[in-house]
Write a structure and sequence with these properties.
Blueprint: H1 14-22, H2 35-48, E1 52-56, H3 59-70, E2 75-80, H4 84-87, H5 92-97, E3 100-104, H6 113-116, E4 130-137, H7 148-160, E5 164-168, H8 172-179, E6 194-198, E7 208-212, H9 221-227, H10 236-247, H11 250-269, E8 276-277, E9 285-289, H12 292-299, E10 305-308, E11 313-317, H13 324-337
Parallel strand pairs: 2-3, 2-4, 4-5, 5-6
Antiparallel strand pairs: 1-7, 6-7, 8-9, 9-11, 10-11
Helix pairs in contact: 1-10, 2-10, 8-11, 11-13
Amino acid sequence: MKSFASDNYSGIHPEILNAIVQANNEHAISYGDDPVTEETNQLFEKIFGEVKVLYAFNGTGANVVALKCCALPFQSVICTDTAHIHVDECGAPTQSIGCSLVALPTTDGKLTPELIEPQLNNIGNLHHTQPKIISISQCTELGTVYTTDELKALSNFAHKNGMFLHVDGARISNAVAALGCTLKEATVDCGIDIMSFGGTKNGLMIGEAVLIFNKDLWKNAPYLHKQSAQLFSKNRFMATQFKALLETELWRKMALHSNKMAHLLEDEVSKIEGVVITQKVQANSLFVIIPSYAVEPLREKYRFYDWNTATGELRWMCSFDTTEEDIASFAATLRSLI
């Protein structure tokens, strides 16, 4: 049974599996000093320009490493109230760094300079934590996508106020595919200082990459990476997946497909009376409200998550391996229940 619960539920793309097998041919130096990791790092540099690359086991680890590079314990991270670092990481950033998270409510999962501005009133006041990082998710947790102009506005605001712009890029591939630009145009050219580049949600077996563009953050990064328990001894098996993901733009192919499936799902379920789509469908997720009596019978056949139990809002996710047949079957089941 295919799931619409999360793109984490999907399997591993065959090209990624093959890359892992190819990297398993012989012994190699550990902890990232192997030829495969070097080749992958050079590929990242070819795409993004000058960048320090650190590999992490998962999204939480990548976010902790990235934020730790930027903040001291008395400083704070400004994010949305739906941000993964605030809702879904069991307090890891606060526990690991000691800094505070300032979570701002939004209707679409996006931060703006206007929303952040009031949080800067206490800069210099030793009784308050000091804002140091603006952390956003791209795509957002509500499935929306920042435009490049919105990203530039945030980075300009951050740098003007002595702050860093961090991007949780667990679904960065889906965002860039939706924007129709290059990875560099959607990140480095927008002034992002540091980010995670997600792999697990887009066809990888394991692994995220921390990409550090701001050279001021390079010096201590390897030590913070090790201290955060994210340095993998057999790093070639993580790096080779990113090599396969990047060298033929497999990341874009998979993201375009999962985005397309989400739009197809939107088209199908929007024809069903009683279905309300609550957010713009811009990437690979749908946020919906359906009649309450249909929720559990639908869940008996397809896994998905409640998003807001107070309003009855649900989240449906599409993956690189979601098919048109999966969409048709899901929509037909929902139609029959309603």
